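Milestone M4 deliverable, item 7.
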Amino acid sequence: QVQVVESGGGLVQPGGSLRLSCAASSSIFSSYAMGWYRQAPGKQREFVAVLTSGGSTNYADSVKGRFTISRDNAKNTAYLQMNSLKPEDTAVYYCCAHTSTRQRYWGQGTQVTVSS
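Output delivered:
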């Protein structure tokens, strides 16, 4: 199976920035759609952003204009650049690799805490 590992989370003040990374162990990484999701305390997991193999992107309304998803296929890595962070962005952030056969491989998550 594909191994997915997130990194880059941490504690940041409101208005600050973080960049999350997601590394996947696959020789066909470039064919995957890559997505970011998050789960805040007491809430269900929610969609954040997705980037298809063809370069199309989509973002949740709550993060539009602040977050940017990208990828480096040579490094089998996807990224989530998070700017202008708000306390309500506090959550565990998960990366997911979506294969062409609709299989999904999830990482273990990385904690992002936005607090003053």
